Fold this protein.
Amino acid sequence: MHSEGYARDSFVMKYALVLAGLVLAVLLASCGGGEGAQKDEASDPEPAATETTAEAEQAAEPEAAVEPEPAAEPDAEKAAEEASQEDVDSIGDATYESILADYTAQLEEATPTLIEEFNAEAEGVTDMVELANICTDKIQELALIETQGTERMALVMYRDGDDYEVYEDWSMKLYDVYEAQSMEITSAYEDAALNAYL
C-alpha cells in the first residue's frame, strides 16, 4: 500500500517538475532567452536562484502549456488601400466562405505533417528551450497559412466594399481553426517535454 502512494507521489512530483520546466522554457523563449541568454548564464559565476514553493505550484497548473502564438493579423484596411486591381483579380470570384473552406483544409492537412516533423526534430532533445523553439517554428508555419487566408479575405472585403466587421467575422473563424490546429502541435510538444523528464 505504501509503495502505491510513493509511486503516485513520485509521479506527481515528476509531473510538477516537467510543468515547471515547460514554464521556464516558454518564459526563456518568449523573453529572448535563446543563445544570448546562455552566454550570459555561462559568464555569471553566481548560482541561479531556486524556485519558491509558490512558484513551483503555480508552474504546475495546466495553463502553463505552450499557447499558440497569434497569427499575424493583416491590417485589413491597410491591405485594402494597397490592393491593386491585379491583387483583386487574383482572387477571382472567391468568397469569404470559399476562402475559409480552402484555408481550413490547408491548415488541417498541414498539421499532421508538422507534428511528424516536430516529433522527428524533437527526438532525443531534452533541452526545454530547444523543444519550445522547434514547436514555435512548426506553429509559425501554420500561422503563415492562416495569414495568407486572411489576406485573401481582406481582398474580398475590398472588392465587395464590405464593412470591416464582415471581414473580421470571417477572419476570426479562420483564426479559430488555426488555433485548434496549433494546439495539436502544442500537445506534441507537451508529450515530448514530459518524455524528456521521465
The CA atoms of residues 122 and 131 lie 6 Å apart. Residues 1-65 have pLDDT under 50 and may be disordered.
